[in-house]
Structures are given as structure tokens and as C-alpha cells.
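Your task:
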Amino acid sequence: MPTLFRYFVPALLAAGALAAGAAARQSDDKPANTTPEEDVAIARELKGLVPGQAASCLPANTTRSASSQVYGGTIIYRVSRGLKYRSDANTRCGRQGGNRQWDILVTNTPIGQNCSGDPVQLIDRNTGMLSGVCAFGPFVPYRRP
């Protein structure tokens, strides 16, 4: 029985957080998904790269070879120095002021690739506790010119 609660409770919390995020998104024109410090870090991360056309899904197997970083409501996948994907989530993914370096990004997709609208969970590496939930937005590739 404890195993059921181990998986059921986080899934239930994730669903509730996604619903709350969707409700908040509908009530605000543009919610504050990132702090000014996170905006600076995002600009530094994407410096020298040119944005391409947004896609609804990441190319297959991209996440296996990429590392990810969460900046508030923005998720960046680093495929290589010359290719990164940016996805602006529907809400803040993690707690404000949280330790991004210690959060583990967890996705569960039925088709084997991440797509816009798929849920994202952040797990605190130290405690194993759920530290945030959001949903992917469109994926914008950033490439070296």
C-alpha cells in the first residue's frame, strides 16, 4: 500500500498544480514566470544564438543527449554549444528562490518525445520531494549563426 501512495500522491499534486496554473494563466494576461535575475541568466545562456521557428515537439531523442536547466518558467535544453531549445512553460516551474542546480527535471511522455502541454515535475535532489510542476510551451531552437 505505501507504494501506491508514493506514486499516487505526487501525481495527484501535479494534476492539481497544473489545473491551478491553467486557472492563473487564464486570469492574467502575462504572469511573471521569471525574475529579473532569471531573465539575465536566460540572456547569458542564449547569448550569440539566433532563435528559429517554434515547434510543438522536440526532435526525437534530443532529451537523451541534452542537459536541461530551469529558470523560473523557462526550460532550456542544451544539445550542444551551438544548439539549445527554449520552452516557456505555462507557469513558474519551481519555487521562487529555489535551488535550480539541485532540482531534477522529470517528464513522462507516452510518445517518447517532449511536446507542448506535456507535464514537467521538478524533484528536489536532496529530499526527493516534489518542488514544482508546470507544462511545456512551444520549443524554440536557438542556433549559432
Q: What stands out?
A: The two ends are 55 Å apart (CA to CA). The chain has one domain: 2-143.
